Amino acid sequence: MLFFLGELLQNWWGPFRLLTSHLFLGGFGLLASALLTWVLLPRLVGLVPRDRGRSHAVQSSAAQGKPTGVGVIFVSIFVLVQLLVMPPNFESFAVLILTSLSCAFGFLDDRATLAWGEYKKGLLDLLICVLGAAALSGLKDVTIWLPFTKYLFTVPEWLFIPAATILLWAAINCTNCTDGVDGLSGTLVMIALMSIGGLLYFGLGHERIAAYFLLPHYTDGANWAIMAFSMVGCLAGYLWYNAHPSQMLMGDAGSRALGFLLGVLVIESGNPFVIFMVAGVLLVNGGTGLVKVALLRFARIAIFRDIRFPLHDHVRHKHGWSNPQVLVRFAMVQAILALVLLVLLLKIR
């Protein structure tokens, strides 16, 4: 909306052209999302259910009784801010709709008296991921770039959609599994979104910088960066209340929507391996747990008997780390890895 207003009004008064600046829209989106989330969360928290605790999690009693599912509030704020600041197109609208659906399904699980089963949630995630992959492909072949080579590769639609579906599904469930320590999931996703947003805006979205680094130039890269920065604002407002000891929890409503959005932005970067660079700790923490459960349940293979998953439960249970220690150490490792690996990604081509 603001972009169109800027295009319409800049001929009447020159300063209105500021509304067409992606840098201004990204900054405004971040600030508006942060302030709205910070102001509205404590006022709307009474509308969400209370956490029932999870018997399998370490220190689960600490979360019991706290408001959960507040992700439905900050995801709604995110969507409204996007409608205001992001230049609209079919893909962005599709992503906003599917992000909202992922949030809605998560919230219904958060408020259900009997928690939804893993298979039900997995199938709903799969449906959203298939639709998301189809929307992002445009139902045509997709061009991608890979680390350590300057060449571009064309991926046929029949291969891209299942591969993108797997990436989106993994991002959703790894983010969901990581949401077990105050501030951990939100902080790791924030680091990932800032990293991918920076790559999309300052690298892929800038013609001269992209040419310098031998990267493909995406004219809509800045548009997706606006989306990343707006969610960073929402997470900043949420983490104000989720810092240890937390006052409220995002629940599945937040973690599943965040995971889906992270996967979308990685796909829009044109390089699926970027997810290991910007969210490596998130993937290891949650993804290894998914692998262990799959091996136990479907292959009847028992490995890592002495290691608890997600990994944050292991270090708390086996090594006595406190919640703040888990948060600071995991976030520190992720921030350093993202910086180093993205530099290597850009320079070694």
Short description:
With 349 residues, the protein is an all-alpha fold. The chain is built from 14 helices and two strands; from the N terminus they run H-H-H-H-H-E-E-H-H-H-H-H-H-H-H-H.
Written overview of the protein:
This protein has 349 residues and is mainly alpha-helical. It has one domain. Helix content is 67%, strand content 2%. A two-stranded antiparallel ribbon has the order 1-2. A hairpin with a 6-residue loop joins strand 1 and strand 2. Helix 9 runs antiparallel to helix 10. The chain is globular. 47% of the residues are buried.
Percent of residues in beta strands: under 5%
Chain-averaged pLDDT? 89
Characterize the main sheet: 2 strands, antiparallel
**What spatial order of strands do you see in the largest sheet?**
1-2
User: Portion of residues in helices?
Assistant: 55-70%
Note the main attributes of this structure:
349 residues, mainly alpha, two-stranded antiparallel sheet, 14 helices, 67% helix, globular
Describe the secondary structure blueprint for this structure.
Elements: H1 2-9, H2 22-44, H3 71-85, H4 90-111, H5 118-137, E1 142-145, E2 152-155, H6 157-178, H7 184-204, H8 207-212, H9 221-242, H10 251-268, H11 274-278, H12 280-298, H13 311-319, H14 323-347
Antiparallel strand pairs: 1-2
